[in-house]
């Protein structure tokens, strides 16, 4: 299998490339950020997904596509137009090239944030979507485009809606809870929680996701939207305490008022994942945190 990974220099992208170096597949790792790999089956290609010709050139060489490239959620509220140009128009460049070159399947990384206000937990794939950010709007639109491209052009796809992904290559600068808290605890800095910290989230280790992506690209599951979480609730306060245990530090925890838009409980219904793949992501939170901290500790030393 020849596969193009768009967004290969990103958090999940780097883990996916690592996953695929252990296979015999040929990998074209595509991003605007240069990266180097020693693996003989990986070739880096500098590609901006808004460059239609560059996208087409790569897609013409492959059987499958893993589309992970995205303009991030925080930046989307500052520049919605740029977000749409990258996330929507850039994706359409990929889809048009895929149908032009008869690509077997396009994998797309969607986000659970497109759900918006939660009406039902655990959250099923059928939950109404009411995105509350330009980023969420774009993710929702792309899911719709994929379904239309399948109907019109017979282009097969697979969508995973990521819940709270964490793991190696996710920097504290991302603003995500796990790397921010782990790095602050490791540097003996205080952390804070909003409200009483009882809000729950569904934390999923990144290499669980990349295993499922590879299985999805190789296998017969297609034209489905699948939640990619563990289906396990963990409160924010419990998550912080568990990270403190992993680092073996007793941090100072500052409590701040609860945000008015804070979602109380949010975790995945994983029954569809189990039905389609015969299993669900199974790395427990403590084990995943230990692996993540080992990576983070090395970066802090550098």
Give your account of this protein's structure.
This protein has 302 residues and is of the alpha/beta class. The protein folds into 2 domains: 2-164 and 204-228, NAD(P)-binding Rossmann-like Domain (Rossmann fold, 3-Layer(aba) Sandwich), CATH 3.40.50.720; 171-201 and 232-276 and 284-301, Alpha-Beta Complex (UDP-galactose 4-epimerase, domain 1), CATH 3.90.25.10. It is built from 10 helices and 13 strands. It has helices at 11-21, 52-59, 73-78, 80-100, 134-153, 177-186, 206-218, 236-247, 271-277, 285-301, and strands at 2-6, 26-31, 42-46, 64-67, 105-111, 157-162, 164-166, 191-194, 200-201, 203-205, 224-228, 234-235, 253-256. The protein has a 7-stranded parallel beta sheet, sandwiched between helices. Helix 5 links the parallel strand 5 and strand 6. Helix 6 crosses helix 10 (285-301). The longest helix has 21 residues, at 80-100. The protein is globular, with a radius of gyration of 19 Å. It starts with a strand and ends with a helix. The relative contact order is 0.13. The mean pLDDT is 95.
For this entry, give a set of tags.
UDP-galactose 4-epimerase, domain 1; globular; alpha/beta; about 300 residues
In short:
The chain is α/β, with parallel strands linked by helices and 302 residues long. It contains 10 helices and 13 strands.
Helix and strand layout, with pairings?
Blueprint (H helix, E strand, L loop, with lengths): L1 E5 L4 H11 L4 E6 L10 E5 L5 H8 L4 E4 L5 H6 L1 H21 L4 E7 L22 H20 L3 E6 L1 E3 L10 H10 L4 E4 L5 E2 L1 E3 H13 L5 E5 L5 E2 H12 L5 E4 L14 H7 L7 H17 L1
Parallel strand pairs: 1-2, 1-4, 2-3, 4-5, 5-6, 6-11, 7-10, 8-13
Antiparallel strand pairs: 9-12
Helix pairs in contact: 1-7, 2-4, 4-5, 6-8, 6-10, 8-10
